[in-house]
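Course exercise 7: structure representation. Students receive a sequence record and must write out the corresponding structure in token form. The form below is the worked example handed out in class, using Acyl-CoA synthetase (504 residues). Read each field label carefully; the graders check that inputs and outputs are placed in the correct fields and that the protein name is recorded exactly as given.

STUDENT ID: A-19
EXERCISE PROTEIN: Acyl-CoA synthetase
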Amino acid sequence: MSVYAQARQHPGRPAVVDVSGAVISYGELIRRANQLSRALADLGASRGDRVLTLVGNRPAFLEIAVATAQSGLYFVPVNRRSSAEEFRHFATDSRPVVVIAEADVAARTTDVLEQSGVTERRRFSFEPVGGWRDYHELGVDLPCDEPQTRSAGGMMIYTSGTSGRPKAVRRALPDGPPRPYDPVAVATSARLGYVPGPGVHLVACPLYHAGPGGFALRALHLGQTVVLMERFDAEEVLRLIERHRVTTTHLVPTMFHRMLRLAPEIRARYDLSSLTSVVHGAAPCPPHVKQDMIDWLGQVVYEYYGSTEAGLVTATTSAQWLAAPGTAGTAMPGVQLRILDDEHKDVPAGEVGTVYHSLAVPNFEYLGDKEKTAAARVDEFVTVGDLGCLDQEGRLFLRDRRTDLIISGGVNIYPAEVEARLLAHPLVADAAVVGEPDDEWGQRVVAYVQPVEPGDDTLPDRLAEFCRDGLARFKVPRRIEVVARLPRTESGKMRRRLVQGGQS
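STUDENT ANSWER:
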């Protein structure tokens, strides 16, 4: 199946419900995508060109994704809240032929685009902005039937840039028209509780990110209705699940944490029995948080390990996780896992090394960085720098990212383990653990915590004691600092370089 086939077979089925509650059918979605495909071609976009978008969670995001996917174009979604410097990087690095943006973004990026050669003719906004054209008029006078010539496009997504400037991940475009959702893709979806047929998928995360956007498109390919939230709100998630009888959703662990913080009477107020799959990934989930979510929702919580570069690599169900708490699951169909040491030799089961895997999706490259692309490969296996181990049953257990690893006195300390302990304290809303230079030990463990309620000067001492009760002595933070807010990306990843840079 594919979203195009769904539109042919079920044109009246609801495809998207926007934040106002307005409903767009599959037939309407594809007709608009067909107009956009023709409009982009009229603007001079040809195979391999890029369409850069800075768009919130609105139906247009999905329209553009579906249009570029049948036009031989790269869809390049980036964060609409990008800084001026970040946007300049995206605009110059991706070299787009067309830019589509929210009005507030458009108003402050016109000069950058002029310098990059993107003229007014190829700039579109959703509200009136000087020097920009109206997106809603793009292609509306063009035919809405299926284009005679269709060419498979793709997505070019920028990595989150948690430890440096974001890099675009690009794959070669396949030949021919858009391919149907093949058996491997269907099997991969099924591992996470996503099956073909009617259902309702709730989008609570930013669509521009690879995980949420990918799962929303996955839901459309399978025939589900996609319900959009403008931004995450813990109780609103519950309300929408009950109202729309949501079956599937993609969340991140920080959202779990906030949902669990809701008062028991609020959590009990809503009927969540329609849920069949609550998928999480993108960041480590403290075991106690995941256990609490399973206790609340039942065994509908699924987890995956993957990346922008690699796609979906492993998956685990609630039952599989309960049998081996902490596991990120076993390999997806067609994927192989290896754990290698620093000399690229396989390590025994149970021993920590760098996680490598065969590609779940076609070969990728970091745009304009052959050296980084080559460094990520060993034979036909690739890595994004995560550390982990495999047990005798082939289950993957992640420890941390190599760049986050703290080495103190020659001993490896994984920040995620210390953060999980801190997050288990009822007065902690969020936590980040980093390594700071130490003349004696090489590095020392330092924690930054965001409290549930500010103003408790005794919190650092209480947390230190809490850590001593649950962690080995060498893992206990040498210093705990309380901050108003920690710098996470909208997809839930901690921006550690900002924490370490003192910009928290």
